[in-house]
Amino acid sequence: MFKKILIANRGEIAVRIARTCRSMGVHTVAVFSDADARADHRRAADESVHLPGIAPTDTYLNVEAILGAARDTGAEAIHPGYGFLSENADFAEAVAGAGLAWIGPPAAATRAVGDKIKARQLARDAGVPVVPGLFEPTEDVAEVIAFGREHGYPLAVKAAGGGGGRGLKVVHAEAEAAEAFASARREAQAYFGSSEVYVERYFTAPKHLEVQVLAPAPGQALWLGVRDCSLQRRHQKLVEETPPPLHTDRLAEMGEAAVALANACGYVNAGTVELLVDSDGSFYFLEVNARLQVEHTVTEEITGIDLVECQLKIAAGDPLGLTQEQILSGIKGHSIECRINAEDPAAGFMPTPGKLTTYVEPEGPGVRVDSGYSQGGEVPAAYDSLIAKLIVHGADREDARRKMVRALEAYRIEGVRTTIPAHVLLLEDPDFVAGTHTTRTVEDGPVLAELAEVTADPVLIVDGHPVHLWNPGMARSAYAAVGASGGDATAPMQGTMLKVLVAKGDTVAAGQVLAILEAMKMETVISAPHDGVVQEVTVSPGDTVAAGQVLVVIE
Q1: Which of 54, 99, 244, 372: disulfide with 12, CB 3.0–4.6 Å?
Q2: CA–CA separation, 14 and 24 (whole Å)
Q3: Is pLDDT at 502 greater than 50 in this prediction?
C-alpha cells in the first residue's frame, strides 16, 4: 500500500478521500487555490500545497503544477476524485510518466469510453443495447435533419467528448435543428476541446439507471448493484438511490451488460456504466464515467464496501478479496443520497455562491454527510455548487425515504440558498414515493411551481446588492433580468465567457442573446435588456468576469 498520495481535487470528494486514507494509515497531500485557502479539504489532509490563482485552468486543471506538488511532497500516487482531471487520459499518462501511480482506470480504457461515439461502438460490439442513433460524428446539420425525418422527433445532438448534460441539445422539430446543432458544437468545443457531435434518439421521460463496476484487473470486472439517478435538473443529478424502485427483474441483466462492456475495453479500478431505461424495462447504454462517481456513497451504504479503499488497493496491486457472489449476497437495505447544492431551486436552480453563515448537519442512526464545507466557509463562484452530500441508509425504501425527509428538515444552512427545499418536496412527490419518477419529473412536475409559491421573495446577490427575481420559474429569464443594469448587460455572477455573439455597431432587440457565460458548471445566457445599438463590447471569449461587470453597453 502507498505511504503518501496526493488528492488532485477539492471540496467534499477531497475530504472523503482523505478520510479513508487516514483510516488506512495513508498520508495525504491536498492542493488548494487562492479561493480555497481556508477550505475544509485543506484541513482534512496531512499537508497541503498552494496552487496560485482561482481559475481551474490555473489551479485544479494545471497538470504541471499538480505533478510538481506531488514531486515536491514525495507522493507516490495521485487520486483525481471526480471532475477536473479525473477522466483526462493525457493526465493519467503524465502521472505514470512522472513515476507515480494513477488511482483510476488505464489511459487506454479512459480514451475508449471517453469518446461517446467510440463508446457506443464498443458497447454495440460487446452486445450491450445502445440508444438508436449514429455511430459516426455528425458533420453537418443536414445529417441531423435527415435523422429526424427517418426516426422522428425528439432527437438529441450530443458532444462526442461530453457528459453531465454539457454539449447536449434536444431537438423537438426540424426548425430547431440548426440552432441546436450549432449550440451543441459550441458547448462541445468550450467544455471538451472538440466540436465533434453525434445524433441519437431522445427518450422524453426515461429512467436513468447506472451500474457501479469495480475491476481489480483487466477482464475481471465486478458489479456492485444498480442505482436510480432519475431526479435531475439540467441533465445533472439531484437525488440518487439504490436499489432502484422499478425494473428489479432486469438488474442482473444490466449488471452483466456493464461487466461485459468494462471487460471489453480492459477497464481497471472503479467506474460507472450509465443506462437509459424505457417504460417497458428495455435498457440502453448511455455512457461510461471512467472515475469514482459522485453517488458512489449509496452503493457503499448497501454493500458495506469502501470504494475509495478498493481504488487504492487496486492501484497499489493489493488484493480486494471480493467475489461477485459475496458482493450481491451482502447487499442490505436501501440508501438515498441528496446533493446539497448552493442553488436557488425557486429560480430554476440558479447558483448562489456565498458564505455559509450557519451550517449545522443532521445526525442520527443511518445518516451520513459527506461535506466540503463548515460554518463560515465560502462557496466560490469559480467551482461546482455542491456543498455536501446527505446520505441515509434504511431497512427498506420507505424507511430510507422517511429518514431522508427528517434529515433534510434538520439540515440548517444559512447565507446561501440551497436545494434543500426542492429535495423535501421531491422526496414527498407522489411519483417519487411510487418510484415512477423519471428524468423529467423535476422540470415537468409541480415541484418548481410549488417552490415559486412557498419561497418568499427570492433574490440573487449581485455585486453585493439584492436583485429580486420576479419570474423565478424561468431560470434563463431570471439570468437575463439580473444581467441587465440600466442600458447595459452585466454578468449575474463570476464566470468565464464562452461566446460573444455581438459586436460594436450591431442593432439588437430586447431579449436577443448577446453572450454566453459559464459559471459553476452552468451555461448562462446574457440577453439584451431592450432594443438598441451596441456601443461597446468589453469582453472576449475566455475572459473571466466578475459579478455585476458590464459586458455589453447598449444605447
Answers
A1: 372
A2: 15
A3: yes
Amino acid, single-letter form, for residue 216: P
The full set of domains in the chain, from first to last, is 4-103 (3.40.50.20), 132-201 (3.30.1490.20), 205-332 (3.30.470.20), 340-456 (3.30.470.20), 460-554 (2.40.50.100)
Distance (Å, whole) CA 134 – CA 35:
43
The answer, yes or no, to whether the previous bond of 80 is cis (omega within 30 of 0) is: no
Q: How far apart are CA 124 and CA 111, in angstroms?
A: 17
**Nearest-angstrom CA–CA distance, 193 and 161:** 8
Average pLDDT value over all residues in the chain: 90
Tens digits of residue pLDDT in 143-184? 999 999 999 999 999 999 876 677 889 999 999 999 999 989
CA-to-CA distance for 187 and 499, rounded, in angstroms? 9
Question: Taking the CB of residue 46, how many other CB atoms lie within 10 A of it?
Answer: 14
Q: Is the pLDDT of residue 236 over 90?
A: no
Buried b (16+ CB within 10 A) or exposed e, 439-452: bebbeebebbebbb
**Mean pLDDT of the 360-381 span:** 96
The CA-CA-CA angle for residues 405, 281, 218, to 5°, reads 90
Radius of gyration of the chain from Cα atoms?
23
Share of the chain above pLDDT 70, in %: 92
What is the pLDDT confidence band of residue 469, given thresholds at 50, 70 and 90?
very low
* Calpha distance 555→553 (Å, rounded): 7
pLDDT at 27: 98
**Alpha carbon distance 51, 62 (integer Å):** 9
H helices of 210-337, where?
A: 251-264, 296-303, 307-316, 324-329
Distance CA(54)–CA(496), nearest Å, equals: 12
**pLDDT confidence bin for 347, thresholds 50/70/90:** confident
